[in-house]
Amino acid sequence: MKIIFAIVFAMTGFAPWAFADVLIQNDQRYIGDDGSLHIVGEIQNNLSAPLSQISIRATLYDADNHVIGIKETASLVNTVMPTMKGPFDFILTDSESKKVKTYSLDVSYKVSAPKSQEIDITSSKMSRDQLNNLMITGTVANNGDITANTVAVIATLYDKEGNVAAVSRVHPEPDYLGTDEQAFFLLTVPDKMQTTDIEDYSLVAESEEYAAVPEFPVSSLVLLGGSLSAYIGVTRLSGRITANLISATGPK
Description:
By secondary structure, this protein is an all-beta fold. It has one helix at residues 94-97, and strands spanning 6-10, 22-31, 37-45, 51-61, 67-74, 85-92, 102-111, 117-128, 134-142, 152-158, 164-170, 182-189, 200-206, 211-212, 229-237, 240-243. 2% of the residues lie in helices and 50% in strands. Strands 1, 4, 5, 7, 15 and 16 form a six-stranded antiparallel β-sheet that branches. Strands 12-9-8-14 form a four-stranded mixed β-sheet, with no helix packed on it. Strands 2-3-6 form a three-stranded antiparallel β-sheet. Strand 10 (152-158) and strand 11 form a beta hairpin.
């Protein structure tokens, strides 16, 4: 399978050539227990600056490759720091899902000012209850020197092939943490069929003031000048991914 990512930079009419440093990864579709269609995946930020206002657009096609709809959703992580990821989840109704045979994905974003990385997942555990519902429990801490408001914990779950199998987001109660405070959280994933083959998961937490503590050291942040927007697209057709032809990196 070959993957080609197309990238366009728009800044005051100037369009430089660049590698795709913001990628859509590990996406797939599945039918939930309620019959709705989910398209899940994650955005990988390989830039040296944070991303915000992240919007993912899904173009839906029927069996004849005709466009039958366009949906938009946001990253579940509001600010995706360098080297980190933000998952997404499109949810289509049962009537919509029956018509969709293939889809394409595009992502747009803004480069944002750096946030201090002070929100940390200090413990976590994945388990199942008596009804076989998958859940992740743990604690989240504020290592900063001011109160963290609207704290959120986001989980990305992966199948044995490394694709995103499900995502979940929750606010602990209360959803604010004072300096050096911790809170318990409980994330649930009710789609039992989809979570049967879960092999791994990752967690990220954030607040209005702070971003997540990285899983590994981040190099010094260099904020890109201007109000830079980028668009990267991939098209999935019958198990293959082709390019939205603009300018492209080499095949991967």
